[in-house]
UniProtKB/TrEMBL annotation:
It is found in: Golgi apparatus membrane. This is Uncharacterized protein. Coiled coil: none annotated. Keywords: Golgi apparatus, Membrane, Signal-anchor, Transmembrane, Transmembrane helix.
Length: 375
Protein backbone atom coordinates (compact mmCIF):
# COMPACT_ATOMS: atom_id res chain seq x y z
CA UNK A 1 0.00 0.00 0.00
CA UNK A 2 1.45 3.31 -0.97
CA UNK A 3 2.24 5.86 1.75
CA UNK A 4 0.44 9.17 1.42
CA UNK A 5 2.53 11.94 -0.07
CA UNK A 6 2.05 14.24 2.97
CA UNK A 7 3.33 11.56 5.38
CA UNK A 8 6.31 10.68 3.19
CA UNK A 9 7.45 14.31 3.37
CA UNK A 10 7.03 14.65 7.18
CA UNK A 11 10.30 14.40 9.13
CA UNK A 12 10.40 12.36 12.42
CA UNK A 13 11.71 15.49 14.13
CA UNK A 14 8.37 17.13 13.42
CA UNK A 15 6.56 14.40 15.35
CA UNK A 16 8.95 14.79 18.32
CA UNK A 17 8.51 18.57 18.41
CA UNK A 18 4.74 18.26 18.14
CA UNK A 19 4.67 15.76 21.02
CA UNK A 20 6.78 18.03 23.25
CA UNK A 21 4.56 20.99 22.41
CA UNK A 22 1.44 19.01 23.30
CA UNK A 23 2.92 17.87 26.63
CA UNK A 24 3.99 21.42 27.48
CA UNK A 25 0.51 22.72 26.69
CA UNK A 26 -1.09 20.12 28.97
CA UNK A 27 1.31 20.96 31.83
CA UNK A 28 0.49 24.67 31.40
CA UNK A 29 -3.24 23.99 31.56
CA UNK A 30 -3.09 21.68 34.58
CA UNK A 31 -0.54 23.62 36.71
CA UNK A 32 -2.05 26.01 39.29
CA UNK A 33 -1.20 29.64 38.78
CA UNK A 34 0.47 31.66 41.58
CA UNK A 35 -2.81 33.45 42.20
CA UNK A 36 -4.62 30.10 42.54
CA UNK A 37 -1.96 28.89 45.02
CA UNK A 38 -2.29 32.09 47.01
CA UNK A 39 -6.07 31.95 47.03
CA UNK A 40 -5.90 28.32 48.19
CA UNK A 41 -3.59 29.34 51.03
CA UNK A 42 -5.92 32.21 51.92
CA UNK A 43 -8.93 29.87 51.95
CA UNK A 44 -7.11 27.46 54.24
CA UNK A 45 -6.24 30.27 56.64
CA UNK A 46 -9.84 31.49 56.61
CA UNK A 47 -11.21 28.02 57.32
CA UNK A 48 -8.70 27.58 60.15
CA UNK A 49 -9.42 30.96 61.74
CA UNK A 50 -10.84 31.26 65.25
CA UNK A 51 -14.50 32.21 65.45
CA UNK A 52 -14.65 34.15 68.71
CA UNK A 53 -12.56 36.24 71.11
CA UNK A 54 -12.25 33.34 73.56
CA UNK A 55 -10.63 31.12 70.95
CA UNK A 56 -6.94 30.21 71.29
CA UNK A 57 -4.61 33.12 70.56
CA UNK A 58 -2.42 30.75 68.55
CA UNK A 59 -4.89 30.80 65.67
CA UNK A 60 -5.82 33.65 63.34
CA UNK A 61 -8.97 35.45 64.45
CA UNK A 62 -11.95 36.54 62.39
CA UNK A 63 -14.77 38.60 63.82
CA UNK A 64 -18.00 36.76 64.51
CA UNK A 65 -20.78 37.56 62.04
CA UNK A 66 -23.62 35.51 63.51
CA UNK A 67 -26.26 37.65 65.21
CA UNK A 68 -29.12 36.67 67.45
CA UNK A 69 -32.71 37.70 66.72
CA UNK A 70 -32.34 40.70 69.01
CA UNK A 71 -29.42 41.93 66.89
CA UNK A 72 -26.71 41.12 69.42
CA UNK A 73 -23.69 38.98 68.63
CA UNK A 74 -24.21 35.36 69.62
CA UNK A 75 -22.12 34.15 72.57
CA UNK A 76 -19.10 32.00 71.75
CA UNK A 77 -19.74 28.27 71.69
CA UNK A 78 -18.20 25.73 74.04
CA UNK A 79 -15.10 24.36 72.35
CA UNK A 80 -13.67 20.87 72.88
CA UNK A 81 -9.99 20.13 72.20
CA UNK A 82 -8.56 16.62 71.95
CA UNK A 83 -5.12 17.27 73.43
CA UNK A 84 -4.32 13.56 73.47
CA UNK A 85 -4.22 13.71 69.67
CA UNK A 86 -1.80 16.66 69.66
CA UNK A 87 1.67 15.65 68.45
CA UNK A 88 5.18 17.09 68.72
CA UNK A 89 7.29 14.93 66.44
CA UNK A 90 10.59 14.91 64.60
CA UNK A 91 8.77 15.84 61.36
CA UNK A 92 6.58 18.77 62.41
CA UNK A 93 5.81 20.06 58.91
CA UNK A 94 4.42 16.72 57.72
CA UNK A 95 2.20 16.61 60.80
CA UNK A 96 1.04 20.28 60.58
CA UNK A 97 2.38 20.98 64.07
CA UNK A 98 1.88 24.53 65.31
CA UNK A 99 4.83 26.44 66.72
CA UNK A 100 4.52 29.33 69.16
CA UNK A 101 7.53 31.66 69.08
CA UNK A 102 7.75 33.75 72.27
CA UNK A 103 10.00 36.78 72.74
CA UNK A 104 10.42 39.09 75.74
CA UNK A 105 11.29 42.33 73.96
CA UNK A 106 12.78 45.45 75.56
CA UNK A 107 14.56 46.70 72.43
CA UNK A 108 13.60 46.18 68.81
CA UNK A 109 16.29 45.14 66.34
CA UNK A 110 15.29 45.05 62.68
CA UNK A 111 17.81 42.23 62.18
CA UNK A 112 15.83 40.11 64.64
CA UNK A 113 12.61 40.61 62.68
CA UNK A 114 14.28 40.05 59.32
CA UNK A 115 15.74 36.78 60.58
CA UNK A 116 12.36 35.74 62.01
CA UNK A 117 10.64 36.48 58.70
CA UNK A 118 13.18 34.30 56.86
CA UNK A 119 12.35 31.16 58.83
CA UNK A 120 11.07 28.74 56.21
CA UNK A 121 8.77 26.75 58.46
CA UNK A 122 5.24 27.33 57.07
CA UNK A 123 4.23 30.68 58.49
CA UNK A 124 0.57 29.68 58.71
CA UNK A 125 1.70 27.23 61.42
CA UNK A 126 3.65 29.87 63.38
CA UNK A 127 2.14 32.16 66.00
CA UNK A 128 4.14 34.95 67.63
CA UNK A 129 3.95 36.33 71.14
CA UNK A 130 5.77 39.34 72.60
CA UNK A 131 5.89 41.06 75.96
CA UNK A 132 7.38 44.54 76.36
CA UNK A 133 8.07 46.63 79.47
CA UNK A 134 6.14 49.80 80.29
CA UNK A 135 9.12 52.12 79.96
CA UNK A 136 10.06 54.81 77.45
CA UNK A 137 12.39 52.36 75.75
CA UNK A 138 9.67 49.71 75.86
CA UNK A 139 7.24 52.12 74.21
CA UNK A 140 9.70 52.73 71.38
CA UNK A 141 10.29 48.99 70.98
CA UNK A 142 6.55 48.32 70.86
CA UNK A 143 6.00 50.98 68.20
CA UNK A 144 8.82 49.61 66.04
CA UNK A 145 7.54 46.06 66.50
CA UNK A 146 4.02 47.06 65.45
CA UNK A 147 5.37 48.67 62.28
CA UNK A 148 7.30 45.53 61.38
CA UNK A 149 4.28 43.35 62.07
CA UNK A 150 2.01 45.56 59.96
CA UNK A 151 4.39 45.36 56.99
CA UNK A 152 4.65 41.56 57.16
CA UNK A 153 1.00 40.84 57.90
CA UNK A 154 -0.17 43.03 55.02
CA UNK A 155 2.32 41.46 52.60
CA UNK A 156 2.14 38.20 50.61
CA UNK A 157 -0.13 35.58 52.19
CA UNK A 158 2.60 32.96 52.54
CA UNK A 159 4.78 35.37 54.53
CA UNK A 160 2.09 36.17 57.11
CA UNK A 161 2.12 34.52 60.52
CA UNK A 162 -0.99 32.79 61.85
CA UNK A 163 -1.40 35.25 64.71
CA UNK A 164 0.55 37.85 66.69
CA UNK A 165 0.03 38.80 70.34
CA UNK A 166 1.69 41.76 72.07
CA UNK A 167 1.50 42.09 75.84
CA UNK A 168 2.68 44.93 78.06
CA UNK A 169 4.16 44.06 81.44
CA UNK A 170 1.92 44.91 84.38
CA UNK A 171 4.91 45.49 86.67
CA UNK A 172 7.88 47.85 86.62
CA UNK A 173 11.23 46.42 85.54
CA UNK A 174 13.86 46.52 88.32
CA UNK A 175 16.50 47.81 85.87
CA UNK A 176 15.41 50.53 83.48
CA UNK A 177 18.61 50.65 81.42
CA UNK A 178 19.02 48.03 78.68
CA UNK A 179 22.75 48.73 78.34
CA UNK A 180 24.56 45.39 78.03
CA UNK A 181 27.09 46.11 80.81
CA UNK A 182 24.35 47.26 83.18
CA UNK A 183 22.19 44.22 82.39
CA UNK A 184 24.97 41.77 83.15
CA UNK A 185 26.31 43.23 86.41
CA UNK A 186 26.36 40.45 88.99
CA UNK A 187 24.66 42.72 91.53
CA UNK A 188 21.67 43.09 89.19
CA UNK A 189 21.25 39.46 88.26
CA UNK A 190 18.86 38.16 90.90
CA UNK A 191 16.24 40.92 90.59
CA UNK A 192 16.70 41.15 86.83
CA UNK A 193 16.24 37.44 86.20
CA UNK A 194 13.35 37.18 88.63
CA UNK A 195 11.67 39.96 86.66
CA UNK A 196 12.46 38.16 83.41
CA UNK A 197 10.83 35.03 84.82
CA UNK A 198 7.63 36.92 85.58
CA UNK A 199 7.60 38.32 82.04
CA UNK A 200 8.20 34.90 80.48
CA UNK A 201 5.47 33.26 82.56
CA UNK A 202 2.97 36.03 81.77
CA UNK A 203 3.68 35.63 78.07
CA UNK A 204 3.58 31.83 78.14
CA UNK A 205 0.35 31.38 80.07
CA UNK A 206 -1.44 34.04 78.02
CA UNK A 207 -0.55 32.70 74.59
CA UNK A 208 -0.17 28.92 74.93
CA UNK A 209 -3.16 27.47 73.09
CA UNK A 210 -4.52 23.91 72.91
CA UNK A 211 -3.28 23.54 69.34
CA UNK A 212 0.35 24.45 70.16
CA UNK A 213 2.81 21.58 69.69
CA UNK A 214 6.12 23.41 70.19
CA UNK A 215 7.24 26.57 71.97
CA UNK A 216 10.37 28.31 70.68
CA UNK A 217 11.76 30.92 73.05
CA UNK A 218 13.74 33.36 70.92
CA UNK A 219 15.39 36.38 72.48
CA UNK A 220 14.90 39.77 70.81
CA UNK A 221 18.64 40.14 70.25
CA UNK A 222 19.09 36.89 68.30
CA UNK A 223 19.75 38.28 64.84
CA UNK A 224 21.06 35.29 62.91
CA UNK A 225 19.93 31.67 62.76
CA UNK A 226 19.62 29.08 60.00
CA UNK A 227 16.32 29.51 58.15
CA UNK A 228 15.58 25.88 59.03
CA UNK A 229 15.94 26.53 62.79
CA UNK A 230 12.55 25.09 63.77
CA UNK A 231 12.86 21.93 61.68
CA UNK A 232 16.49 21.42 62.75
CA UNK A 233 15.65 21.56 66.46
CA UNK A 234 12.42 19.57 66.22
CA UNK A 235 14.16 16.82 64.24
CA UNK A 236 15.97 15.68 67.41
CA UNK A 237 12.58 15.02 69.06
CA UNK A 238 13.78 16.13 72.52
CA UNK A 239 11.50 17.70 75.13
CA UNK A 240 13.94 20.60 75.71
CA UNK A 241 16.73 21.52 73.32
CA UNK A 242 19.01 24.54 73.06
CA UNK A 243 21.57 25.48 70.37
CA UNK A 244 24.85 27.22 71.15
CA UNK A 245 24.60 31.02 71.22
CA UNK A 246 27.63 32.91 69.87
CA UNK A 247 28.35 36.49 68.86
CA UNK A 248 30.11 37.94 65.83
CA UNK A 249 32.68 40.65 66.58
CA UNK A 250 35.63 42.48 65.06
CA UNK A 251 38.88 41.05 66.43
CA UNK A 252 41.45 43.88 66.69
CA UNK A 253 44.31 41.36 66.90
CA UNK A 254 43.55 39.55 63.65
CA UNK A 255 41.90 42.67 62.18
CA UNK A 256 38.95 40.66 60.85
CA UNK A 257 35.55 39.45 61.95
CA UNK A 258 35.45 36.50 64.32
CA UNK A 259 33.03 34.74 66.70
CA UNK A 260 33.00 34.21 70.45
CA UNK A 261 30.74 32.43 72.97
CA UNK A 262 27.91 34.52 74.37
CA UNK A 263 25.40 32.49 76.42
CA UNK A 264 26.93 30.64 79.38
CA UNK A 265 23.66 29.42 80.90
CA UNK A 266 23.74 26.03 79.18
CA UNK A 267 25.88 23.75 81.33
CA UNK A 268 26.48 20.46 83.10
CA UNK A 269 26.82 20.62 86.86
CA UNK A 270 30.12 20.08 88.67
CA UNK A 271 30.96 18.86 92.16
CA UNK A 272 32.03 22.41 92.97
CA UNK A 273 28.72 23.98 91.91
CA UNK A 274 26.73 21.36 93.83
CA UNK A 275 28.84 21.98 96.93
CA UNK A 276 28.42 25.76 96.61
CA UNK A 277 24.65 25.36 96.34
CA UNK A 278 24.52 23.10 99.40
CA UNK A 279 26.02 25.88 101.53
CA UNK A 280 23.71 28.67 100.30
CA UNK A 281 20.75 30.18 102.08
CA UNK A 282 17.37 29.17 100.58
CA UNK A 283 16.90 32.52 98.80
CA UNK A 284 20.39 32.69 97.30
CA UNK A 285 21.00 31.79 93.66
CA UNK A 286 24.03 30.38 91.88
CA UNK A 287 25.07 32.35 88.80
CA UNK A 288 27.17 31.22 85.87
CA UNK A 289 29.83 33.13 83.95
CA UNK A 290 31.07 35.36 86.80
CA UNK A 291 34.62 35.18 88.16
CA UNK A 292 33.28 36.16 91.58
CA UNK A 293 31.45 32.83 91.67
CA UNK A 294 33.60 30.08 90.09
CA UNK A 295 31.48 26.95 89.60
CA UNK A 296 33.76 24.90 87.30
CA UNK A 297 30.71 23.64 85.45
CA UNK A 298 31.08 22.21 81.96
CA UNK A 299 29.85 25.02 79.72
CA UNK A 300 28.39 24.11 76.33
CA UNK A 301 29.59 27.49 75.05
CA UNK A 302 33.18 26.24 75.27
CA UNK A 303 32.56 22.91 73.55
CA UNK A 304 31.91 24.18 70.03
CA UNK A 305 33.98 22.57 67.27
CA UNK A 306 33.93 24.87 64.20
CA UNK A 307 34.01 21.93 61.78
CA UNK A 308 32.08 19.57 64.05
CA UNK A 309 28.82 17.79 63.32
CA UNK A 310 25.93 20.22 64.04
CA UNK A 311 23.83 17.22 65.17
CA UNK A 312 26.21 16.42 68.05
CA UNK A 313 24.05 16.42 71.17
CA UNK A 314 24.80 16.52 74.89
CA UNK A 315 22.73 16.31 78.05
CA UNK A 316 22.49 19.50 80.14
CA UNK A 317 21.54 20.44 83.69
CA UNK A 318 20.93 24.12 82.89
CA UNK A 319 19.77 25.89 79.75
CA UNK A 320 19.85 29.42 78.42
CA UNK A 321 16.84 31.05 76.82
CA UNK A 322 18.34 32.81 73.80
CA UNK A 323 16.93 30.11 71.49
CA UNK A 324 15.17 27.41 73.50
CA UNK A 325 12.94 24.77 71.88
CA UNK A 326 10.39 23.16 74.21
CA UNK A 327 7.68 20.62 73.56
CA UNK A 328 4.45 22.32 74.62
CA UNK A 329 3.55 19.39 76.85
CA UNK A 330 6.51 20.28 79.10
CA UNK A 331 4.94 23.65 79.85
CA UNK A 332 1.46 22.16 80.12
CA UNK A 333 2.71 19.71 82.73
CA UNK A 334 3.84 22.61 84.92
CA UNK A 335 7.40 23.54 83.96
CA UNK A 336 7.67 27.32 84.08
CA UNK A 337 10.35 29.91 84.84
CA UNK A 338 10.69 30.28 88.63
CA UNK A 339 10.74 33.92 89.74
CA UNK A 340 12.29 32.74 93.00
CA UNK A 341 15.24 30.63 94.06
CA UNK A 342 14.38 27.10 92.97
CA UNK A 343 17.16 24.80 94.16
CA UNK A 344 19.32 27.96 94.02
CA UNK A 345 18.48 28.54 90.35
CA UNK A 346 16.20 31.05 88.67
CA UNK A 347 14.65 31.80 85.26
CA UNK A 348 15.81 29.49 82.41
CA UNK A 349 18.24 27.55 84.60
CA UNK A 350 15.49 27.15 87.18
CA UNK A 351 13.18 26.01 84.37
CA UNK A 352 15.66 23.24 83.51
CA UNK A 353 15.73 22.09 87.13
CA UNK A 354 11.91 22.20 87.36
CA UNK A 355 11.55 20.23 84.11
CA UNK A 356 13.97 17.62 85.45
CA UNK A 357 11.86 17.29 88.59
CA UNK A 358 8.88 16.62 86.30
CA UNK A 359 10.78 13.89 84.44
CA UNK A 360 11.97 15.85 81.38
CA UNK A 361 15.64 16.01 80.41
CA UNK A 362 17.43 18.94 78.75
CA UNK A 363 19.75 18.68 75.77
CA UNK A 364 22.09 20.96 73.87
CA UNK A 365 23.71 21.22 70.42
CA UNK A 366 27.27 22.55 70.93
CA UNK A 367 28.02 22.76 67.19
CA UNK A 368 24.74 24.32 66.06
CA UNK A 369 25.11 28.08 66.33
CA UNK A 370 22.77 31.04 66.56
CA UNK A 371 24.11 34.57 66.86
CA UNK A 372 23.45 37.36 69.34
CA UNK A 373 23.41 41.03 68.46
CA UNK A 374 26.70 42.81 69.21
CA UNK A 375 26.16 46.16 70.90
Amino acid sequence: MAVARSLRRTSPITFVLASLLAIGFLVFLLSPSPSESTSSSARQRQEDAAENPLSPPTKPFKKATSLRKDGRVAPPPVEHYALNKLTSTSNPIANDERVLILTPLARFYQEYWDNLAKLNYPHELISLGFITPKTREGDAATAALQSAIAATQSGPIDNRFASVTILRQDFDPPIVSQNEKERHKISNQKVRRESMSRARNSLLFTTLGPSTSWVLWLDADIVETPSTLIQDLARHDRPILVPNCYQRFYDPNSKKMSVRPYDFNSWQDSETSLELASKMDPDEILLEGYEEMPTFRTLMAHLNEPSGDPDTIMELDGVGGTALMVKAEVHRHGAMFPAFAFYHLVETEGFAKMARRLGYFCWGLPNYLVYHYNE
